[in-house]
Write a structure and sequence with these properties.
CATH architecture: 3-Layer(aba) Sandwich
Helix content: 25-40%
Radius of gyration: 17 Å
CATH class: Alpha Beta
Order of helices and strands: EHEHEHEHEEHHHE
Number of strands: 7
Strand order of the largest sheet: 3-2-1-4-5-7-6
CATH topology: Rossmann fold
Structural class: alpha/beta
Distance between the termini: 31 Å
Number of helices: 7
Largest sheet: 7 strands, mixed
Strand content: 15-25%
Number of domains: 1
Length: 238
């Protein structure tokens, strides 16, 4: 599985994490011709609603709606995303395989421990993937992505930058609606924070971020290092 290099590699602990935080941006960048891969670390086998098989189908549908080139899973244990060397090496291997320009992972401060742990694992792998003598299973050459950004799931923080998704909010909502087992109660299901108007809460957050910069909807991100601006200081798109 050799790749010349993709534009964006987005990690999530569970399928739907990436969509909650940045589905609008992914749809926008995909429409611009950017090549995007999503990597889910687990199968979300401990989710209160739905099954692993159902979640796989939902994740596939959501990725197709967003124009994502590929979606992969590392099959790590749900609620087992601990800072282990074997986990870091698996993630570093994925980074070396796909050679992304940019990497995205969940905001480190989230009510669900798996989301913060996902970021910490990706942060470690982000650094290790660029070390020449760091060995991974696939024996791929080292790769240093340009930057690591954080998207928000449950957490709310002042973003370092936002992306205007006004023209793609409908695609984001459609991608979230693909996860029928998670955001809606069906027969035999149970009530969770996700079934209590969660999609509406997410779009309300995007509307708030948009208002801050004079657009209707925007997604907020945090950067692990300062962003370099040239002409962008005058208001051009990043």
């Amino acid at each position: 599985m050799e790749h010349k290099g993709i534009d964006i590699l987005a990690f999530g602990a569970h399928a739907d994490d990436v969509e909650i935080g940045m589905a609008g941006s992914l749809a926008k960048w995909s429409a611009m011709g950017k090549k995007i891969v999503i990597c889910d670390l687990t199968e979300a086998e401990l989710s209160s609603n739905g099954t692993v098989e159902t979640r796989k189908k939902e994740a596939k549908k959501a990725a197709e709606l967003l124009g994502v080139a590929e979606r992969v899973n590392l099959y790590l244990s749900d609620r087992g995303l601990l800072l282990k060397d074997e986990h870091i090496r698996k993630i570093a291997n994925i980074i070396r395989i796909y050679k992304p320009t940019l990497i995205f992972a969940p905001y480190h401060n989230d009510r669900h421990p798996d989301h913060g742990n996902c970021f910490r694992l990706v942060e470690e792998a982000f650094f290790s993937a660029g070390i020449r003598k760091y060995e991974v299973e696939g024996n791929y050459p080292p790769h240093k992505p340009l930057n690591l950004y954080q998207y928000m799931i449950n957490g709310f923080a002042s973003p370092h930058f936002v992306v205007d998704i006004t023209n793609f909010i409908d695609k984001k909502v459609k991608a979230l609606n693909a996860y029928q087992s998670q955001f809606f109660i069906h027969e035999g299901g149970v009530q969770t924070p996700l079934t209590e108007g969660y999609i509406e809460n997410v779009t309300a957050r995007d509307r708030l971020f948009g208002k801050e910069v004079g657009v209707t909807f925007a997604e907020g991100f945090l950067s692990s290092k300062p962003l370099l601006l040239n002409n962008n200081v005058f208001g051009e798109d990043l």
